[in-house]
Amino acid sequence: MGRGKIEIKRIENSNNRQVTYSKRRNGIVKKAKEISVLCDAQVSLVIFASSGKMHEYVSPNSSLINILDAYQKQSGTRLWDAKHENLSNEIERIKKENDNMQNELRHLKGEDINSLHHKELMSIEDALENGLTCIRERQMEIYRMAKKNFADKERLLEDENKRLTYQMHQVMDMEGGEMENEYQYQPQMPFSFRVQPIQPNLHERF
């Protein structure tokens, strides 16, 4: 009894769909390898899963680029022309912009200005004046910031000096008080004295 015909339609169950994809993918890659080896054919196979993951196979003695180039020659279809043309136009546009910027920079430096007209020279002069104004404003801003920082540091140093001076006076007052107390309560050293008689010794008279 033969196998029943399987209806080809999307598998709704995600797990079953993933299992079927893995089996069919492996089968296709196996067939591609077989035909490449058995028939000495150049085979390129690229598969993208529904998740976006890519799987590929290319014959061992070839590459995807070589196979695509051969496809272009055989079919007459140009795969890269539109993309390459857009890329070439973009490169050309960027190159022109760079050349224009280089010319403007030289003109601002005063180079290659002999061929410029009066309006072009006036435009360059205005640009230089505007640039000079911006530079001077920035310089003044930097000067004001530096002056403010210096004033802040000077104020901090003055405050620190006042604090240290106050602490020094406190220490001196404490030391002076201790010395005064030490002198006040220092015990007096005992001393003896001998009273000399005012009258002469009576024994000497006899």
Walk me through the structure.
The protein is mainly alpha-helical and 206 residues long. The chain folds into three domains: 14-79, Transcription factor, MADS-box (SRF-like), CATH 3.40.1810; 81-115; 116-173. Helix content is 64%, strand content 5%. It is built from four helices and two strands. It has a two-stranded antiparallel ribbon.
Query: What is the helical fraction, as a range of percent?
Result: 55-70%
With helices defined by DSSP (H or I, 4 residues minimum), what is the helix count?
Answer: 4
- What is the third-level CATH name, the topology of the largest domain? SRF-like
Number of domains: 3
Report the CATH architecture of the largest domain: 3-Layer(aba) Sandwich
State mean pLDDT (0 to 100 scale): 81
Global morphology: flat
Q: β content, as a range? A: under 5%
Helix/strand order, N-terminal first: HEEHHH
Structural classification = mainly alpha
Order of strands in the sheet with most strands: 1-2
What is the class of the largest domain in the CATH system? Alpha Beta
Rounded to the nearest angstrom, the radius of gyration is 52 Å
The residue ranges in which pLDDT falls below 50 over 5 or more consecutive positions are none
CATH homologous superfamily label of the largest domain: Transcription factor, MADS-box
Distance between the termini: 180 Å
Q: Main β-sheet, in a few words?
A: 2 strands, antiparallel
Number of strands: 2
List keywords for this structure.
mainly alpha, SRF-like, single chain, 206 residues, 4 helices, 64% helix, flat, two-stranded antiparallel ribbon
